[in-house]
Design brief:
69% of the residues lie in helices and 13% in strands. It is α+β, with helices and mostly antiparallel strands and 110 residues long. Strand 1 (6-12) and strand 2 (15-21) form a beta hairpin. Helix 1 (26-47) packs across helix 2 (52-84). It is elongated. The mean pLDDT is 85.
Length: 110
C-alpha cells in the first residue's frame, strides 16, 4: 500500500522518539535526524547548556536561518541569471497569461 504509515525510532540529543514515517522515507528521516542531532550537540557544546528545550529551540532557529539564507541566495542567483541573459520575467509572465487567455478563447469558440 503506497500510503502505508510505519513508525521509525530516532534519537535526538540522547532521547528516543517514535515518529510516523512512510517506509520509502525512512532513509531521508534518518538523515534529517542525524543532522538535527549533530546541530543540537554542536549548540550544547558551544553554549555549555544541558537544557534540552533551550538547545532544541536554538537548533530550530539555526536550521531555519540556514534554510532561509539558502532560499534567499537562490533567489538572488536567479535574479542575477535573469539579468545576465536579459530575461524580463514580468514580460514573460504577461506573455504566458496572454497566450493562456487566447487559447482559452479559442477553445470556447469550438
Amino acid at each position: 500500500m503506497p500510503n502505508e504509515i510505519n513508525f521509525l525510532d530516532i534519537t535526538l540529543f540522547g532521547k528516543k522518539y517514535r515518529v510516523a514515517c512512510p517506509p520509502d522515507q525512512h532513509a531521508a528521516l534518518l538523515n534529517a535526524a542525524a543532522y538535527v542531532d549533530g546541530k543540537m550537540r554542536d549548540i550544547a557544546e558551544k553554549t555549555k547548556s544541558t537544557l534540552a528545550e533551550r538547545i532544541a529551540v536554538m537548533t530550530a532557529l539555526n536550521i531555519a536561518h540556514e534554510h532561509l539564507g539558502l532560499n534567499q541566495e537562490a533567489a538572488q542567483q536567479n535574479q542575477k541569471n535573469e539579468f545576465e541573459i536579459g530575461l524580463d520575467m514580468d514580460a514573460v509572465k504577461r506573455r504566458i497569461f496572454s497566450m493562456e487567455a487566447e487559447l482559452e478563447s479559442v477553445l470556447k469558440a469550438e
